[in-house]
Specification:
CATH class of the largest domain in chain A: Alpha Beta
CATH topology of the largest domain in chain B: Fumarate Reductase Iron-sulfur Protein, Chain B, domain 2
Mean pLDDT of chain A: 97
Shape of chain B: elongated
Radius of gyration of chain A: 18 Å
Strand content of chain B: under 5%
Largest interface: A-B, 68 and 65 residues
Low-confidence stretches of chain B: none
Order of helices and strands of chain A: EHHEHHEHHEHHEHHEHHEHEH
Strand content of chain A: 5-15%
Largest sheet of chain B: none
Radius of gyration of chain B: 20 Å
Strand order of the largest sheet of chain A: 2-1-3-4
Number of strands of chain A: 8
Largest sheet of chain A: 4 strands, parallel
Oligomer: heterodimer
Helix content of chain B: 40-55%
Number of domains of chain A: 2
CATH architecture of the largest domain in chain B: Orthogonal Bundle
Low-confidence stretches of chain A: none
Structural class of chain A: alpha/beta
Order of helices and strands of chain B: HHHHHHHHHH
Number of domains of chain B: 2
Distance between the termini of chain A: 32 Å
Chain lengths: ~280, ~160
């Protein structure tokens, strides 16, 4: 049985607990053991906290990585932001001994040390690479017939020179994972366009962020998709929370929630009441 | 007339953005930038301003904060310039000199106060219970000692001063 340290992040547990619940249930069904990374903090957010103080970002990320290292576990995240931060930080610290020594000076103040060994994975990556589409298909008990829009977000695949998961301009992983449920992933324009929320844009320039979102929503509507399926609670929040103002009503599901549904979870356990855009299944 | 300031290049390098010197101004970045389609942010221009040492113009600009860090420019740059890392370095310099939007200060304050960037909400706590999840997520939120460690870490890196 595969075993990972489960990194919760902020938005899933504190805004969309249905994503956390669905991930736990789906992993159980796929024989993946999740060990809570108790004591973990925010990753911290790559586009804001890293932009304010790279030193703080790296030290706090290293603290999270060290918690998993101590357990001897690799990390799985359900958020592109957490994945972006923790993967990038682990990559930098594994390739720069001087930087690692500097970070350890900070960690020493709280009696911790990071040796630089933790590996970081995205939930969708684990599903695609470790479990595999065929094995997933064998666990689908409630095949779905929806037409959906695969929304990759940015930090799942990019920067691709260090992540090496899929072609960042024409990715397929999420489409294949969606189609494993029986649903159809609809082709559309500008499929890899950012949701608009990242880099502190949502907080400081919300109207600019919404213009990204609106372009995406228009392309999604035109594609005939009934749902948006994302792999990031922050993209999820951006689509779910802003589209009412923008005049759209396209329900948003995290991949874990789509899988929960396809694997027979009760709809009430998907935590859909936290969604602002109503999800009528 | 811009007077080039080579000292700023050293400052950028110290903040982790040394490779800005690699940019040869082809403009592929600006052509694909989704923010540039909506705003006056021009990636190529920012890289040039950084090369020329136009520090005050950069750190006082809104444009520096209009990048969503989507990495489209990084993926397409023919010189493999790590543009997002450079934007982050420039933002670090701006913040160190006191340039920070109130909304960003709020996000940073949340991190220091809770160990997470978003605060706990009662209705979500109730939903967690309904879903059979622990009401308090099993993170730093559930352990005061871990929370105290994190606060110490923020003091050690000077982050507590940024949010004041």
């Amino acid at each position: 049985m595969a075993k990972y340290a489960f990194f919760l992040g902020c938005i899933a547990p504190l805004r969309y607990p249905g994503i956390e619940k669905s991930t736990r249930e789906v992993c159980k069904a796929l024989d993946i053991e999740l060990v809570d990374l108790t004591d973990a903090s925010c990753c911290p957010a790559p586009g804001v906290i890293r932009a304010f103080s790279k030193k703080t970002w790296l030290a706090a990320a290293a603290r999270n990585l060290a918690l998993a290292e101590k357990e001897g576990l690799e990390i799985v995240t359900i958020c592109n932001g957490c994945y972006g931060s923790l993967f990038d930080a682990a990559h930098e610290l594994a390739h720069d001994a001087e930087l690692l020594a500097e970070v350890n000076k900070v960690l020493a103040e709280i009696g911790m040390e990071y040796k630089g060994t933790t590996k970081v994975h995205h939930f969708a990556e684990v599903l695609y690479k470790e479990v595999g589409v065929e094995a997933i298909k064998s666990k689908i008990t409630n095949p779905l017939e929806y037409q959906v829009a695969a929304f990759y977000g940015c930090h799942f695949l990019k920067p691709s020179n260090i992540k090496e998961l899929d072609d960042p301009e024409d990715p397929k992983i999420l489409d294949e994972l969606i189609e494993a449920t029986g649903a159809k992933s609809m082709p559309r324009k500008q499929k890899t366009l950012c949701c608009g929320a990242g880099g502190g844009l949502k907080a400081a320039f919300g109207d600019v962020a919404k213009k990204f979102t609106q372009t995406n929503l228009e392309n999604i509507k035109e594609s005939g998709a009934q749902f948006i399926v994302d792999v990031c609670p922050f993209c999820h929040l951006q689509f779910d929370g802003t589209q009412g103002d923008l005049g759209y009503s396209i329900p948003v599901l995290h991949l874990s929630q789509l899988y929960g549904l396809a694997m027979g979870m009760d709809a009430k356990d998907l935590g859909l009441s936290a969604h602002i855009t109503p999800v009528n299944l | 007339m811009v007077t080039p300031n080579p000292e700023f290049a050293k400052e950028i390098a110290a903040a982790g953005g040394e490779e800005v010197k690699m940019c040869f101004q082809c403009g592929t970045c600006t052509a694909g930038c989704p923010s540039g389609r909506q705003t006056s942010y021009r990636v190529r221009k920012l890289m040039r301003m950084a090369q020329l040492g136009m520090k005050e113009e950069i750190i006082n600009s809104d444009e520096l904060w209009e990048c969503s860090t989507c990495y489209t420019c990084v993926e397409r740059c023919p010189r493999q310039v790590p543009i997002v890392d450079i934007v982050i370095s420039l933002r670090n310099i701006a913040v160190a000199e006191g340039h920070m939007f109130p909304a960003h200060k709020k996000t940073a304050s949340n991190l220091v106060a809770y160990g997470h960037t978003v605060p706990v909400q009662d209705k979500i706590t109730a939903l967690r219970a309904e879903l059979g999840l622990p009401e308090v997520p099993p993170t730093v939120l559930a352990n005061d000692a871990a929370k105290a460690d994190l606060e110490k870490l923020f003091k050690a890196t000077g982050f507590d001063k940024i949010v004041e």
